[in-house]
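FYI - complex with adenosine-5'-diphosphate, inputs then prediction.
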Amino acid sequence: MSVNARQEKLNFQAEVKQLLDIVVHSLYSNKEIFLRELVSNASDAIDKLRFEALSDPALFETDSSLSIKINFDKREKTITISDNGIGMSRDEVVSNLGTIAKSGTRDFLSRLTGDQKKDAHLIGQFGVGFYSAFIVADKVTVITRRAGLGIEHGVRWESIGDGEYVIENMEKQTRGTDVILHLKTDEDEFLGDWRLRSIVKKYSDHLNIPIQMLKRKEDEKPTDEWETVNRVTALWALPKSDVTDEQYKEFYKHISHDFEDPLVWTHHKIEGGNIDYTCLLYLPAHAPFDLWQRDKHYGLKLYVQRVFIMDQVEQFLPNYLRFVRGVIDTTALPLNISREILQDHFSIPKLRSALIRHVLDLLDRLVEEHPAQYAAFWKEFGNVLKEGPAEDFANRARIAKLLRFSSSTIDDQTVSFDDYIKRMKAKQTKIYYLTAESLLGAKSSPHLEIFRKNNVEVLLLTDRIDEWVISHLADYEGKALQSVAKGDLKLDEIADESKEERKADERKEQIQQQAYEPLLKKVHTILDKQIKEVRLSHRLTLSPACLVRDEHALGVQMERLLKAVGQEVTEVKPIFELNPEHPIIRKLNQALDEAWLEEWVQVLYEQALLAEGGTLPDPAGFVQRINKLWMERIAS
Ligand code: ADP
């Protein structure tokens, strides 16, 4: 196809338009970051070129010295940021600058409130990149050409940020991208050599690509000599003592496109062992808005001997640590490695386990030395870390140590297994837990009654994946994890009783057993289809009845989770337990009227089902039964 200048006026995707408005209004108080964002994009474009050129050196054309150039023109009131990176084709310009590819964008935008401060914070998490140009510019022109395409494939894009842009082809001699900002009238402050240099120093000093500006005479008149403004060092390759906290933070913002400071970082240079590498790993302060999007790719930036190789390399970290950002630089991989080869390279498992260790060490350190930071981390990423025991068998015990739960005595997901063990009763050998849909539901569960009475703490697991997490843990430091809603409860573990008292109780239980035998038989007949067994309960002090699962059966939560993802679940009937001390149960034991008994048993069963968060097969029938019982009461 011959190239023509074909000028088109196109609309931004609706989300872009919305985002642009918000960016301009909410980020105004920190407007100089536009330069960091555009320089980050330029540096990414250069990284991409380097990577693609590994397999196709012709992409360098005649110019292999890579750099970013920043220039300004006082008279025209423009700032131009140029790179000789990968550039964009016409189609790429349309899709990269006219649409937002991130899934979940609409959802994200609907969370914005109109409150400038809050929105600025949210927008920061989202990352606005290129669009930050419109904070200071009322018109932006992009001139670009993709590396490897002929000079006639240059593209000119221009917009005043009002919902439309114009795009046309033009000749561009050099590959790469120029972003020209036509500054708003009151943004002259950025048209100064000193000001621009100091912004570059502040945000981009440590980028390992030279950022250049023209040498200027005393009156700021430009010469035609370019000089490098930043230090051009790979930050991670410096000794820790040479890097300030500020520099670590700014570097994080460049690689993560996050506006906020990271929570913490860990920096290691490992040499002379069985594998050489340097890594700089960060924990973000907040979860990105799309942490739960399945198609979102995470991972580290990979460098080999300081040469950028690939972005978002997932092989180095397991899924449960997908929130970690950072770089890994190693001599253990060849420079010309492709994604496919990387997959199976023999060094990957070694690097991976080393990186996992660094992250877990960092988390341990937070727990020990900065508990408030660990709590902040847990709040943001606890649910991701919980995937660990299932995914990483080798580190199961270490990860288990880092898990936090609510309990029957502490509400706010801060209880570790170790805390729990410290508070265990002298005779107690198991860690008790209860899974439920919500904390409120867990706390009023009938299964807790006997534990409350005996002051035994129970962990309350109320996140959807908790039961699944627990199913991969079986025990912690030799202590079995025991669901209070499963199996036969051994009272002697938890009750504060002397041997004699226990003996007396056992005698009482025997007598009760005989006395209730006929009722148990009748109940079993009535509920034959719904339950596996009916028995007298040791767990209840306040409720008349509850449902219990077999020791090895799936828990209720797990059953629901599996059903929700469309898995076949073989239904296992529950055990129905009755509280022999409860007035209703006593009354039932004396009942002569079979129809009346049936009504009550049905209601008790349905109540037990509701109490464990289950749904009733016949809710309207339940309501009728309850009302009928009330009517009898009113009538009597
Ligand atoms: P992000 O960088 O977070 O993807 P941006 O809105 O900043 O989002 O940029 C959108 C896309 O536009 C980038 O992913 C990139 O593909 C492209 N892009 C932006 N700036 C450049 C540039 N200087 N050179 C090449 N491509 C660029």
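The mean pLDDT is 90. The first strand starts at residue 8 and ends at 11.
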